[in-house]
Request: fold
Amino acid sequence: MATFLYKLGRLAFRRRHFVALIWVALLTLAGVGAASAPAAGTTSFSIPGTEAQKAFDLLEQRFPGMSADGATARVVFKAPDGEKMTDAAHKATVEKTVKELSDGSEVASVADPFQAKAVSEDGTIAYASVSYKVSGMELEDSSREALEDAAEGARDAGLTVEIGGDALQTTPETGATEVIGIAVAAVVLVITFGSLISAGMPLLTALIGVGIGVSAITALASTLDLGSTTSTLAMMIGLAVGIDYALFIVSRYRAELAEGRAREEAAGRAVGTAGSAVVFAGLTVVIALVGLSVVNIPMLTKMGVAAAGTVAIAVLIALTLIPALLGYAGRKVRPAGEKGKLLGGGRAKSAEKAAKPNMGTRWASFVVRRPVAVLLLGVIGLGAAAVPVSSLELGLGDDGSQPTSTTQRRAYDLLSEGFGAGFNGPLMVVVDAKGSEDPQAVFSDVGDEIKSLKNVVTVTPATPNEAGDTATITVIPDAKPSSVATEDLVHAIRDKGTDIKADTDADILVTGSTAMNIDVSQKLNDALVPYLVLVVGLAFLLLIVVFRSILVPLKAALGFLLSVMAALGAVVAVFQWGWFADLLGVEETGPVMSMMPIFMVGVVFGLAMDYEVFLVTRMREAYVHGETPGQAVVTGFRHGARVVTAAAVIMMAVFAGFIGSSESMVKMIGFGLAIAVFFDAFVVRMAIVPAVLALLGKKAWWLPKWLDRALPNVDVEGEGLRAHDDDADRELARA
Reply:
């Protein structure tokens, strides 16, 4: 592989005009496609195989005019202190508001609070339910404006009015911190390279890669039913790996220049050696992201595949566009150790300063001398950070997890105040009595059975369809949607349904957003172990091929488990316990998002293997070329520690930039990935890995002979390029 990539790097360097033209054309094509594509609707959140999804599908069949996937809004009214909503003036205001809401072309129905008995017992709070013909993301701006204008009119009349539901759903904003993250990355690159030109290349290529990836996602969003979070994730990961991959190749190019090689030759060797590491690092990320499809949640699969596509683009750009840009830059990219004029270039280094070991060398030498102490300190530290995982609670966000500054959250709180905490998470029980002799009796019996359960506040009478063989029953729990009591109630209703089916042959299904959230959490928990086995197993085999070792990939996988558990512990401490919540802008604590553990496992594993590949391939290269195991560790750090450190800081900065998002899911993902990179890069890869390698010695690189013969030789260390050098030297000697 090293020889092929070496030739590719030299070709891209020579044919830089052609290579640059191809990438500009791809960026233009993707941009035009995104600009001309129809607006994407909301992502259809389906969970195949779950009871909640089966009930939803049954409703689509038996209640065709129900518009089950249409947007909804609850306009909540509260009377001033000492007054009631039933007062004539307030009643007239509400009726006027309901009339205004009914005029919209996309409105399917509006329920008057006084006719629907949607007034609290004390008479101070009421709500009007609005149903739309289209989903929340498909609503026209005029419909949202009409909804807000109607609410504003009621406010002017003296009522407190808030709007809940998904009708006001909009694309999440990431905030200014995303730009700050990119700015931090730029500063780190300038410090690392000591040159503005060298620092600009990784940023430029990463932005081009993300531009192509996100534009392609936007262009296909409507066709493939991709939501806004899909492009946000692709941008987050694409920026991080795009900068890192380019950083490693540019750094290796400068190192090759420092050894006296011609620029085209240096570009070829940089792509042949560092580029090989980029390919395998990218493969591990792609495997981890595409592997999310085993969970069988379409939204998660689409997010993973889209992000994996952006990573693949980042790899291709690093292998082709970076050497092309190096060709354009010429002498403006200086050898390692030299700085540009703006940063003090041209100053002669003293011999003593030039010979002084860098920080990476000093740290590696310390670890090699004290491996046991470093190993214990690292493992104990990560273990302590992982302790909060023992109290991990999972759930999916609703309006109750929104910031208190939003009208959705204030509407949620008003409904809880007026109708009870469980009112925001009603359960819909679907009774399929098509095979029963007396469907009406079954509907009545089911309602009575549910009323007898604990934690039930209200059970509405059954509402049958036109055929009279299927009915819906709304159940209001006593506790809030994300509580354990509500989850127990869902399971209790389903247990009752099993008994009723045995007696009447009728199916009892529980659905609604609360039941859907419970089913998602269960499905994700069930899929976590198979996913770990698949992804870690495939990456383990890939790393055996890369490192030609059994223990090094095993150590890499165990180190990853330490870092991901510590990162999950930090997420629990911040988003569930509330530690440093104000500092990070977390306005509401609560259960951790259900998909967070499996999502972090996928993404963090891929990113963790990036640093493993980049750092350890340098050690492997030194060992293969004759150094002792201890010397190889020090050599790997001398050449790679500075660059890996810069890469980790950049990735942390990019991920941390998304903490400013208005979407709680994006905020949590940004924080989780940033802290995971910190733990993995600076504790696992920089401390635990060299300590373990120092303790193992030559055993670290052991591989059974039969397996060595069976494995393909991918030559990540560039041994084939050394043979190429020897051939060139012999040719010169003959001449």
Observations:
- Residues 439 and 723 are 82 Å apart (CA to CA).
- The chain has 24 helices and eleven strands.
